[in-house]
């Protein structure tokens, strides 16, 4: 175990925890902790750098916190496999699709992009997303319309929705959201 600031890193030789309740999967044990947001990296091959595993775990825990899920394993997000590893390409995608909305958020202290992301992650359920954002559903509906006006993307159109989703995933992968 290693504690760094508020983060706790745990390296385990196998995904099993032994305790008074007997053997159980580490994921099951983690999911039972109230209010937890945990991320799991891919298995760490012997002799490989801990930095890769740390980056994967941090990415996974950020996805857990964003989505309200207690545990996310790196690589679970099937969208990620469609995104290139090239930081420059990811940055260009984010700028092209989300740039105007990100600048608007920065200038006005608004949360348009975060609202769109939360709405998308909650399968476009306005009530669930509004509850997660602690705002009224009408406020969320306004933010979605404002985002569409700024970006020129209609979130009810499949192509635009897919493009925004990939850009949101790219921004998250870059640590920007």
Q: How is this structure best summarized?
A:
The protein is 54% helix and 11% strand. It is mainly alpha-helical and 177 residues long.
Describe this protein's structure.
The protein has 177 residues and is mainly alpha-helical. The protein has 2 domains: 2-76, no CATH class; 81-173, PucR C-terminal helix-turn-helix domain (Arc Repressor Mutant, subunit A), CATH 1.10.10. Helix content is 54%, strand content 11%. The protein has helices spanning 26-31, 50-67, 87-108, 112-121, 126-133, 137-151, 158-173; strands spanning 2-4, 7-9, 16-19, 22-25, 38-40, 71-73. Strands 1-2 form a two-stranded antiparallel sheet. The longest helix has 22 residues, at 87-108. It is globular. The model has no long low-confidence stretch (mean pLDDT 85).
Main beta sheet strand tally, sense and closure: 2 strands, antiparallel
Query: Mind telling me the CATH class of the largest domain?
Result: Mainly Alpha
Order of helical and strand elements:
EEEEHEHEHHHHH
CA radius of gyration is 18 Å
Number of helices: 7
Would you tell me which CATH topology of the largest domain applies? Arc Repressor Mutant, subunit A
- Amount of beta strand: 5-15%
- Residue stretches low in confidence (pLDDT < 50, at least 5 long) are none
N-to-C span = 28 Å
- Kindly name the structural category: mainly alpha
How many beta strands in the DSSP annotation?
Answer: 6
Mean pLDDT: 85
- How does the overall form come out from the CA principal axes? globular
Lateral strand order in the biggest sheet: 1-2
Number of domains: 2
The CATH architecture assignment of the largest domain turns out to be Orthogonal Bundle
Helix content: 40-55%
């Amino acid at each position: 175990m290693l504690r760094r600031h508020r983060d706790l890193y745990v390296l385990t030789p196998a995904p099993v925890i032994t305790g008074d309740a007997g053997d159980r999967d580490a994921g099951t044990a983690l999911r039972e902790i109230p209010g937890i947001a945990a991320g799991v990296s891919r298995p760490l091959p012997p002799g490989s750098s801990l930095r890769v595993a740390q980056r994967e775990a941090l990415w996974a825990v950020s996805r857990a916190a964003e989505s309200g899920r207690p545990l996310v394993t790196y690589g679970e997000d099937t969208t990620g496999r469609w995104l290139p590893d090239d930081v420059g390409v990811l940055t260009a995608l984010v700028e092209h699709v989300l740039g105007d909305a990100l600048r608007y958020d920065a200038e006005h202290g608004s949360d348009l992009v975060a609202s769109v992301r939360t709405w998308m992650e909650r399968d476009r359920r306005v009530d669930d997303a509004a509850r997660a954002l602690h705002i009224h559903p009408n406020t969320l509906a306004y933010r979605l319309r404002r985002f569409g006006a700024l970006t020129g993307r209609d979130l009810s159109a499949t192509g635009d929705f897919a493009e925004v989703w990939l850009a949101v995933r790219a921004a998250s992968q870059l640590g920007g959201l």
